[in-house]
Design goal:
Layout: H1 14-31, H2 46-68, H3 73-103, H4 109-123, H5 146-160, H6 162-165, H7 168-189, H8 203-221, H9 235-247, H10 256-275, H11 285-301, H12 303-315, H13 318-321, H14 325-367, H15 376-381
Helix pairs in contact: 1-2, 1-9, 1-11, 2-8, 2-10, 3-4, 3-5, 3-11, 3-12, 3-14, 5-8, 7-8, 7-10, 8-10, 11-14
């Protein structure tokens, strides 16, 4: 029986869960770095490319057997939307409310709230707001959502072309083409950190396409594992340490595109291969799995709080003067919110939606005539 889209596989890749959790925390810290002190993470953007890579591997592990069994594109995309939409919606509404409340204190506040309301409409349907509405970001209410747009796009391409992509040789060709596209994009802008704004938005196709399909190819080349059970190794912690170290690697403007491509390709893929092959000591499994579960919530819910902090900083330097305390407070607040949102909002809501979808499918199944027995309409038409 197929697994519910609302649940992760029971045999999680525990270290990959840990990587997702750590990656989400690093994104949060990177976006609020000024509140931690006079630090920078010049290479932190590659965390997003790691997310695409992990997503491709995990989705291939969870769904390729079902594709071979006949899962249709509509069913797969329903699973994907059910997985990402509830927390996306919460983050988007929080962003709208936060921006609107802060705007009301300004002279042009009413006009800006009206502009935000127009920008919100397409974003409620997970579509980016057109630039003509006055926003420079694709997702002005919750800017990290740009990655969801490109991931869902790549998901559609994946399922619609699976009849050809099931041939690993074709998949290798796709990954090579995406790598060339990514290299072109990175050298065009001199960096990989593009895709969230309308200027350079197309780079998201290159980042999402390469990362996702490289993850799918990794699943194939690693023998299409049927279980996530892995031997315990203390090297798991060494692997985790490489992620934050990579974020702080500096580079000159001339070397930046070379370093970004190196981290995204030459570090990301081997890191995935090694990470899926081992597990941390058993006593740490629960922490890693919880980190994986709340990683998406941390990622998609932190932006509204960042906006509030930046608004305060625009009016006063108090948050900068008291660093790193504000950074710690933001971190604890977001992680706590993410934990409760995932457990008491996202998970129950997805279960409810999945149950309704199953009931609907069962009703349709009952309405179908038994195999080999013509329907009444078919008999009358003869």
């Amino acid at each position: 029986m197929a697994r519910s889209p609302a649940a992760l596989p029971q045999d999680n890749f525990v270290l990959l869960d840990g990587l997702r959790g750590l990656g989400a925390l690093l994104v949060l810290i990177g976006h609020t770095m000024m509140y931690w002190g006079p630090y920078t993470a010049p290479s932190g953007a590659v965390i997003v490319d790691l997310f695409f890579l992990l997503s491709g591997f995990v989705i291939a592990y969870a769904y390729e057997p079902r594709f071979h069994a006949g899962m249709r594109a509509a069913e797969f995309m329903t699973h994907r939307v059910v997985r990402v939409y509830p927390l996306y919606l919460l983050g988007t509404l929080l962003g709208f409310v936060g921006l609107s409340v802060m705007a009301l204190g300004d002279l042009d506040g009413i006009d800006r709230v009206g502009s935000y309301a127009l920008q919100l409409i397409p974003q409620l349907f997970m579509l980016p707001s057109p630039e003509v509405l006055g926003n420079v970001k694709m997702y002005s209410m919750n800017s990290p959502a740009w990655t969801l747009f490109f991931e869902l796009f790549v998901n559609i391409v994946y399922i619609l072309t699976f009849r050809w992509l099931r041939d690993t040789r074709v998949l290798i060709g796709v990954v090579i083409a995406c790598a060339a596209f990514l290299a072109f994009a990175v050298f065009s802008y001199g960096m990989i950190d593009q895709g969230s704004h309308w200027e350079g938005w197309w780079v998201g196709f290159a980042r999402g396409g390469f990362g996702f399909f490289a993850g799918v190819l990794s699943y194939r080349l690693l023998g299409q594992p049927r279980t996530a059970a892995r031997p315990v190794s203390r090297w798991a912690f060494v692997i985790l340490v490489t992620i934050p170290i990579a974020c702080f690697v500096p580079a000159t403007p001339q070397m930046r595109p070379f370093l970004d491509l190196t981290l995204a390709v030459l570090l990301g893929i081997p890191l995935l291969w090694v990470s899926q092959s081992v597990a941390p000591p058993t006593k740490w499994h629960s922490l890693f799995i919880v980190g994986g579960r709340i990683s998406y919530a941390v990622y998609i819910l932190h932006q509204p709080f960042r906006e509030v902090a930046e608004r305060i900083t625009w009016r006063s330097s108090i948050l900068l003067d008291t660093a790193p305390l504000p950074g710690i407070v933001i971190l604890v607040t977001i992680v706590t919110l993410a934990y409760f949102a995932e457990r008491f909002y996202d998970r129950p809501l997805r279960r409810f939606v999945v149950a309704k979808l199953k009931q609907r499918a069962a009703r349709k199944q009952k309405q179908r005539p038994p195999a080999g027995r013509p329907s009444v309409g078919a008999i009358s038409a003869r």
